[in-house]
């Protein structure tokens, strides 16, 4: 998101004096709740979904993620790049394979080596 | 996130040929799963948590959100600004109030007016 | 579950002095966390799953649900029958239909009539 | 739940011809979705919640769990007792301790010994 969008999210919380509700634990709950509302778009069908509804629920997840970044003083780029470095080491591109079953087994094999997924 | 970070996320999926697993439904499941792992950091205590663990799980949520934006051809700024416009209209700043109970009642009151939260 | 199984769950908590952690809020988080672990069995495929893993995760959800019933002094049969009565009134059997799309539209139509799903 | 309550849940699905929607994957999504609605009762406060709302959402989780047991031909007592046996071995009662921090560390210590929580 651009700094302008992030600023809009921050101002929204500031203007309503809602930081008091934005404890990390409450925001973790909120992210899970909105993630489930996003999942609800695909509850009975993987392929027939309302894209407008998906956009709203995905936006809600992103807003609460930004709220959590803000409350904890974190930077999205920093934590994502740090995690991507781990992912790249854990799942070497040259071993990447095809079927869902192999995909899961591949990840499990790596896990068995003590490289736990977090 | 900066374009460079987003590009890193995209390259990770491209290099492993993992777009085949990234259906919108699978990504919605993945966002919920990672959101729950973030919630697990706060399972038994709201105040004692491992910040390094929180950073990793929050990063996982953000990465899967970006994956979903990519697969659906969506722009984070666009969907977030669209949702923030709705939020601003739904929760006027001048009505913002204090306690958690009033906060919930306030939101419920607006919901009762037919302004459902999504 | 039989009274004997329920008693085993209760004794487990009693013997470890874990009621102190079993606040309703913590148990709600725990149910969501275990539900997500169950969902993880189906993260990348709807049809290929490890049934032994599914059994363990579903059991975890059931155990935390029983923990919540216990802490709140609730009876499973009572709350389920009360909810089933609402479901039966909300979704009349004679209107039941076939495709997933119609199913969702049917439920949405009822929702539009002010019969919100909870 | 008593056999009569379970029978009511089964008849509800049968009468509406909804087994077609009750794939294990769809039910796993549904359990997560309802678990999140239960969590929503505690979104902004751990202590102020609407008990009637909690009862309905907890009932929804239980109903979808029963649906999954039914579709997979599983018995609640069997899978729960099997899991409780593992839990009892993993968390010996004589080691049970007091604070949330110790509780988490205790569980982590056991995990470090290769006794992973599932």
Topology:
Four copies of one chain form a homotetramer.
Chain A: H1 3-16, H2 24-40, H3 51-72, H4 76-90, H5 100-112
In summary, what is this structure?
Chain A has helices at 3-16, 24-40, 51-72, 76-90, 100-112. With 118 residues, the first copy, chain A, is mostly helical. Chain A is globular and about 50 Å long.
Gross geometry of chain A: globular
The pLDDT mean of chain A sits at: 89
Oligomer: homotetramer
- Gyration radius over CA of chain A: 18 Å
End-to-end separation of chain A: 25 Å
Most strands sheet of chain A: none
- Helix-strand makeup class of chain A: mainly alpha
* Uncertain stretches of 5 or more adjacent residues of chain A: 113-118
Percentage of residues in DSSP E strands of chain A: under 5%
Could you spell the SSE succession of chain A in H and E letters?
Answer: HHHHH
Biggest protein-protein contact in the assembly = A-B, 66 and 65 residues
Number of contiguous helices of chain A: 5
Number of strands of chain A: 0
Helix share of residues of chain A? 55-70%
Overview of this structure, please?
Four copies of one chain form a homotetramer. The first copy, chain A, has five helices and no strands. The two termini of chain A are 25 Å apart. In chain A, 69% of the residues lie in helices and 0% in strands. Chain A has 118 residues and is mostly helical. In chain A, helix 1 packs across helix 3 and helix 2 packs antiparallel against helix 3. The C terminus of chain A is likely disordered. Chains in contact: A-B, A-C, A-D, B-C, B-D, C-D. At the A-B interface, helix 1, helix 2, helix 3 and helix 4 of A face helix 1, helix 2, helix 3 and helix 4 of B.
């Amino acid at each position: 998101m651009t700094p302008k969008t992030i600023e809009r999210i921050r101002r929204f919380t500031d203007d309503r004096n809602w930081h008091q509700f934005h404890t990390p634990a409450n925001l973790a709950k909120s992210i899970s709740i909105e993630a489930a509302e996003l999942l609800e778009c695909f509850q009975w069908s993987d392929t027939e979904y309302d894209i407008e509804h998906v956009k709203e629920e995905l936006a809600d997840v992103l807003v609460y993620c930004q709220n959590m970044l803000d409350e904890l003083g974190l930077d999205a780029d920093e934590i994502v790049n740090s995690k991507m470095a781990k992912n790249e080491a854990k799942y070497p591109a040259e071993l990447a394979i095809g079927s869902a079953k192999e995909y899961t087994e591949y990840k499990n094999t790596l896990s068995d080596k003590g490289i736990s997924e977090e």
